[in-house]
Specification:
alpha/beta; Spo0b-associated Gtp-binding Protein, Chain: A; Rossmann fold; GMP Synthetase, Chain A, domain 3; 3 domains; six-stranded mixed beta sheet; 9 helices; 21 strands; 25% strand
């Protein structure tokens, strides 16, 4: 089964919590803070791997999560970082976010993109020691890992795309010139998925993609071919296979006209892509019948059944691909370097001000906000992060409720930095 588009839910690992702990010593009644920090969660990383042929594994398993970080411990023992999750994808995989924005186009072996970030580990109380705060009694909770929905879309990477009408003999041809073993039968639409074959021509190797049969109107959604036209976009050259058998109602010349028109409607550049034209099933025709077809000059006469003309065809294709390779630069992959996530956003909901974003969560992400030290520290964070100023600018007034996650406090802009402003 060939799967060329899947939707995934990817989750970074959760960060481990920091711990509040003290080393009790004689003469130090409060003890020395020695709480360790939690380990950060692992990231989810997509990696292009030539050994992966399809997206089938992700169609069966659409949810993946990286490893969680472990919690900190006393005696300044820090938690371990969660293990990154590396997900291999076929070369040619396009990664789009939930809004349809192209995040990455992975075409090179080993090319990768981080798609879901792990949560930051919480700091233990030892990390909050300052000259003014000698014995902090609070620690940070670990952050949740990022959860994101992405769509993976696969476009085959091939030197040559083999296109033609249904039942034109494409599957038989690719089975004769390569090690590929597509399913073959004598009725239309036998190929329901693209097949890849590696063809050795002398000392050269070519990757040939057998594209499911196209019919007139495929580019606008008729038949099955429109689902696979995009797989021709990256091929360096085309083999246009024409079928003279009575099964086809269109003449070979008409087939060529229809196929080129469908390619042009999908992408105008495809119609001018370097190509070799071949007439399949030549064993069915006499020389006189072939002459009557009035084929365009240079058309190769082949028979996948008897093998006639196949060597000449593949050497011509190899020469053409070599010319295209020499004339064009190698296609590079694409990874979008996206701007950092908004630190925080402010909106109103049911009479309360809702503050969302990483800065807001981190400001109150402490182990025990009923602890006066922790409440004061959170208040200072709200001021230093600009959240208090943002609330004032948005129109928040004294006495308004402000919600960050599950925490609700009363806003008092006249007491910035004072723990009593955030009760």
């Amino acid at each position: 089964m060939f799967v060329d588009s899947v939707k995934l839910t990817l989750r970074g690992g959760n960060g481990g919590a920091g711990v509040s702990s003290f080393l009790r010593r004689k003469g130090l009644p409060k003890g020395k803070p020695n709480g360790g920090s939690g380990g950060s969660g692992g990231n989810v990383v997509l990696v292009a791997d030539p050994a992966i042929p399809t997206l089938l594994r992700y169609d069966r398993h659409p949810i993946w999560k990286a490893g969680n970080g472990t919690h900190g411990e006393g005696d300044s023992r820090h938690g371990k970082r969660g293990q990154d999750l590396h997900l291999p994808v076929p070369l040619g995989t396009m990664v789009k976010d939930a809004d349809g924005v192209l995040v990455a186009d992975l075409v090179e072996d080993g090319q990768e993109v981080v798609v879901a970030l792990g949560g930051k580990g919480g700091r233990g109380n030892a990390a909050f020691v300052t000259p003014a705060r000698k014995a902090p009694t609070f620690a940070e909770q670990g952050e949740y890992g990022q959860e994101i929905e992405v769509t993976l879309e696969l476009k085959l990477l091939a030197d040559v795309a083999l296109v033609g009408y249904p039942n034109a003999g494409k599957s038989t041809l690719i089975s004769r010139v390569s090690a590929a073993k597509p399913k073959i039968a004598d009725y239309p639409f036998t190929t329901l998925e693209p097949n890849l074959g590696v063809v050795t021509v002398g000392e050269r190797e070519l990757v040939v993609a057998d594209i499911p049969g196209l019919i007139e109107g495929a580019a606008t959604g008729k038949g099955l071919g429109h689902e696979f036209l995009r797989h021709t976009e990256r091929a360096r050259a085309l083999i246009v296979l024409l079928d003279p058998s009575p099964l086809q109602t269109d003449s070979p010349n008409r087939q060529l006209e229809v196929l080129l028109n469908e390619l042009a409607q999908h992408d105008p550049a495809l119609a001018s892509r370097p190509r070799v034209v071949a007439l399949s099933k030549a064993e069915l025709l006499s020389d006189a019948e072939i002459d009557q077809l009035d084929l365009e000059p240079g058309t190769h006469l082949i028979s996948a059944l008897t093998g006639a003309g196949l060597d000449d065809l593949m050497y011509a294709v190899a020469d053409l691909v070599g010319e295209v390779r020499d004339a064009t630069e190698e296609r590079e992959g694409y990874v979008l370097h996206r701007p950092l996530r908004d630190e925080f956003t402010i909106r109103q909901d049911s009479g309360a001000w809702v503050v969302e974003g990483i800065a807001a969560i981190r400001a109150v992400n402490l182990s025990d906000l009923t602890d006066p030290d922790a409440a004061e520290f959170a208040a200072q964070r709200l001021v230093s992060s600009g959240i208090v100023a943002g609330l004032i600018e948005a129109g928040a007034e004294a006495g308004d409720d402000v919600r960050i996650g599950s925490i609700v406090f009363t806003f008092d802009p006249d007491a910035e930095g004072d723990e009593e402003a955030y009760t």
